[in-house]
Design a protein that fits this description.
Length: 558
């Protein structure tokens, strides 16, 4: 039974299972006059009573994320009006992912509330109903509420958090169905969450017992693609379901500790997440005596680094992303000299994002990003042309570029774009098919250029004009839309749309739109199509677009 605690300034507190309260259990033992019989009976009576003193106390493997009930109760500042009472159900997670608590008097619902917060009611006898299923599937706990007192309800229910991961323990949004074996009741369909970017797992509050996890639409009779899990009373069970994200086939399942979750949770858990992915793709093409095709050899290759460091603790979420992509191409026409080695891809991007969840789907954010080119950009000509450069001071210079030669349009670190922003982020959609976030706020940008030239749209060969871009700063409003969707079984689509309207040039906003459509062919092989659109009136009048089709090999090192 739960021990009564002392008064905490919010009214005295007592356990719902103490003697004299609703649902109390008393061990009464009678002994004879013989000493040995008395000692034996005392031991027999004392042992089960001491073991049942706090039946909800979980073992270490089933430890809660939230603090112990007494600590939660002391931390709750909900006042009790004079003459009223309160009911307190401790939270296992301390998050808003636990279902609602309903208080009934007879057949009438008189109050609702949340785990971890006092629920104010008039003194009297009540039935507390908790659970993630339908009303019929909830657990009913009788309680008695006295004036100016808080009744602490001992958890006779259990908690279950199912994390869906792939064979490399990377979380994803695979679906499953939960069935109670004893009653064969379907408690509902659940989905995994991408916890590495701050999504929350669902917490099932369930009657203690044995449950079967199956694919959505399957039955308790399933003999393949199923797993079972036992949920003890008062325990928070962490369960990992290993699933093939492409076929949704179950690969394994089992109970894990708090530290073994992909995002460790609970007391002493490491809330830091580190990932590192290396990518490589290349092409070798040789054409000889092909009708309608010139004889030539071309060799191209690209390498990429995707790294992330994240921290997730309660309502606090921090994610940093680093992306480096570099590529080169070499062409030998054979009928003439080989062309200079040309850069085909040069992208460095660092993003820092912090969000605080005031509510389940809404909260403030603060972000910063850095984007730049690491190496010079060159243009290769196929004919003799005159290139004129117009500098920021108004002076010009002209050079003659011969066929097969190259001229630079940007120095290394020629374009360095730094931005910061803060505002409100709203998760519009979180579903197994994907997620969609919208952010609105105020932003600041520093646009730094060094020997960076943009072609004048009206100039054409053989006379080209390039204008040098100067530095400029911006302050304005920003809108950010980020989405990730699973279109069909093997296809993933991600998009990032960013609009920035400078206060001084509000009608000429900067627009950046990045899209990736990935088709998984094998575990380490995918076909990716990327499309990028940029509109930056302060730099170029032309709409900038880039298409890229890649056969990509990738290895996850961390």
């Amino acid at each position: 039974m739960v021990d009564p605690t002392t008064s905490d300034g919010m009214g005295s507190t007592r356990g719902a299972f103490e003697p004299g309260g609703s649902g109390s259990r008393q061990n009464r033992c009678r002994s004879g006059s013989l000493g040995t019989l008395l000692i034996t009976l005392v031991l027999v009576c004392w042992a089960p009573a001491s073991q049942a003193k706090e039946p909800w106390r979980p073992s270490a493997i089933f430890d809660w994320i939230a603090a112990p009930p007494e600590v939660q109760l002391e931390a709750d500042s909900t006042p009790i009006p004079e003459g009223q009472g309160a009911i307190f159900l401790p939270s296992m997670t301390g998050m808003s992912d636990e279902p609602e608590v309903a208080i009934y008097s007879g057949r009438s619902r008189v109050a609702t509330g949340s785990f971890g917060t006092r629920i104010i009611v008039a003194p009297g006898q009540y039935m507390v109903r908790v659970g993630s299923g339908s009303l019929r599937q909830t657990l009913s706990v009788p309680v008695e509420v006295r004036p100016d007192e808080t009744t602490l309800v001992a958890p006779v229910w259990g908690g279950l958090r199912i994390e869906v991961v792939n064979a490399n323990q990377i979380p994803h949004r695979g679906g499953y169905e939960l069935i109670q074996l004893e009653s064969r009741d379907i408690f509902g369909v659940g989905y995994g969450a991408d916890t590495l970017v701050g999504e929350r797992l669902q917490t099932w509050i369930l009657p203690p017992g044995l449950y079967r996890v199956v694919q959505p639409g399957a039955t308790y009779r399933s003999r393949t693609n199923f797993a079972t899990v036992y949920v003890p009373p008062g325990a928070l069970v962490r369960y990992q379901l290993v699933m093939d994200p492409d076929t949704n086939e179950f690969l394994g399942a089992g109970i894990v500790t708090a530290e073994q979750m992909s995002v460790p949770e609970g007391k002493g858990a490491n809330n830091w997440i580190v990932r590192l992915i290396l990518g490589l793709n290349g092409s070798l093409a040789v054409a000889q005596n092909m009708a309608g095709t010139p004889d030539q050899t071309s060799l191209s290759g690209e390498g990429s680094i995707d790294a992330s460091v994240g921290y997730h603790s309660g309502a606090h979420h921090f994610v940093s992303l680093l992306q480096i992509e570099e590529g080169v191409i070499w062409i030998n026409p054979e009928a003439s000299d080989a062309l200079p080695l040309q850069k085909s891809r040069d992208r460095f991007r660092l993003d820092l994002l912090y969000t605080y969840n005031l509510w389940e789907t809404l909260g403030p954010y603060a972000r910063a990003s850095l984007r730049m080119n690491l190496f010079p950009w060159q243009v290769i000509t196929t004919e003799e042309i005159n290139v004129t450069r117009r500098h920021t001071d108004g002076s010009t210079e002209t050079e003659v570029v011969l066929p097969g030669s190259a001229f630079e349009t940007s120095d290394y670190l020629g374009e360095v774009l730094i931005s910061q922003g803060m505002g409100i982020n709203w998760r519009v959609l979180q579903h197994r098919i994907g997620q969609l976030d919208i952010g609105l706020g105020i932003g600041f940008r520093q646009n730094l250029y060094r020997d960076f030239y943009v072609k004048e749209p009206t100039s054409e060969p053989p006379d080209l004009l390039y204008n040098e871009v100067s530095n400029f700063n911006q302050e304005g409003l920003e809108a950010i839309v980020t989405g990730s969707f699973r279109l069909i079984q093997f296809t993933q689509y991600t998009t990032h749309f960013e609009l920035f309207a400078d206060f001084g040039e509000f009608t000429d906003p900067t627009i950046e739109w990045q899209n990736t459509l990935g088709i998984r062919l094998l575990e380490f092989l995918s076909l990716d199509y990327r499309f990028e659109l940029i509109s930056q009136p302060q730099v170029s009048e032309e709409l900038q677009m880039a298409h890229n089709l890649l056969l990509r090999f990738s290895w996850e090192l961390l």
